[in-house]
Design goal:
With 303 residues, the protein is of the alpha+beta class. The chain has a five-stranded mixed sheet with strand order 1-2-7-4-3. A two-stranded antiparallel ribbon has the order 5-6.
Length: 303
């Protein structure tokens, strides 16, 4: 009997605490709404919407586009959430993103989730600002020019060149002879190695497509300096624009508000994070037709 009353007391306590939390939660949401905080959901207590945000990485779309698309359909291009331990304003609006980045250092400071900081370290270059950031950037550039790295690349180049020359020997043994256009071969080998080292792409369909677009770009380096539609320089610039739209290695920037900031009527409260999403803008069907298709000529049409 005493055990039964203990269980009743336990569940009564759970109900009271849960009810109190619900009332507090609703009051907080109403207070935020009146202050101008964007609509959205903070998700579950403590974990927020982190699981939904992470699971979107399993989508075939670029991370975290599934999460973004779903939230935008519910709340618009600027919404609140709670991701990786911090209440967050997520922006898919170009004007808001621009304002956040232009205020960098005055109203916002770099902020990254704890998991990223654990892996990169508190003194990572992604958290640095001003002169220190420029100094570290120079050191990283110096490392990429280091003799050790050059030696490694040289070994890989040598291996590839030896393989090409071995193919020439096999052809020569047949007795038929072969004319080798050395400059063309050197260009091909160099391009293959750079694409392999920098992008991890081996010869195949993707390689052929990239090579074609690269040649279109190269043709624009030495041409009449005229940017009229249809000219070589104009076309090369379009290839660059489309590459940056789809292949930018930075799909979002994380910041934290130092004070209450109001942008376009949206309040970003002090201490909250803000995630400015670039991919969401670049892959928005409202901005680009067939946004997941690589089409440099869309820029020629002004779309």
């Amino acid at each position: 009997m005493m055990m039964s009353w203990a269980w009743v007391g336990f569940w009564l306590l759970v109900a009271i605490v849960g009810g109190w939390y619900w009332v507090w939660w609703e009051r907080e949401k109403e207070r935020e709404r009146k202050r101008g905080v964007p609509d959205g959901s903070l998700g579950w207590p403590f974990i927020g919407e982190t699981l939904d945000f992470i699971s979107s990485g399993q989508s075939s779309k670029p991370v975290p586009m599934c999460f973004m698309d779903k939230k935008r359909s519910l709340y618009g291009k600027v919404f609140k959430s709670h991701i990786l331990g911090l209440p967050m304003i997520v922006s898919m609006d170009g004007e808001v993103n621009k304002a956040v980045l232009q205020n960098d250092g005055r109203s916002f400071v770099p902020y990254y989730p704890k998991t990223i900081m654990e892996l990169f370290g508190e003194l990572s270059i992604i958290t640095m600002e001003g002169n220190l950031h420029r100094h570290m950037h120079g050191l990283v550039g110096g490392f990429l020019k280091s003799p050790a790295l050059k030696t490694r690349f040289a070994r890989e180049f040598e291996g590839r060149i030896r393989a090409v020359m071995a193919e020439w020997e096999v052809v020569g043994e047949g007795g038929g002879g072969r004319v080798v256009h050395f400059q063309d071969v050197a260009r091909e080998v160099t391009f293959q190695m750079l694409v392999r080292v920098l992008l991890g792409i081996e010869p195949g369909e993707r390689y052929k497509y990239l090579k074609y677009e690269f040649h279109e770009f190269i043709k624009g380096l030495i041409c009449l300096p005229v940017k009229f539609p249809g000219t070589r320089l104009y076309k090369s610039l379009k290839v660059i624009s489309e590459t940056l739209r789809m292949g930018n290695i930075i799909n979002a920037v994380w910041r934290k508000a130092l004070k209450d900031v109001n942008i376009k009527g949206y309040l970003i409260p002090k201490g909250w994070g803000i995630l400015t999403s670039f991919s969401s803008i670049h892959l928005d069907e409202e901005n680009y037709e067939n946004p997941y298709k690589f089409n440099p000529w869309r820029w020629e049409l002004g779309r």
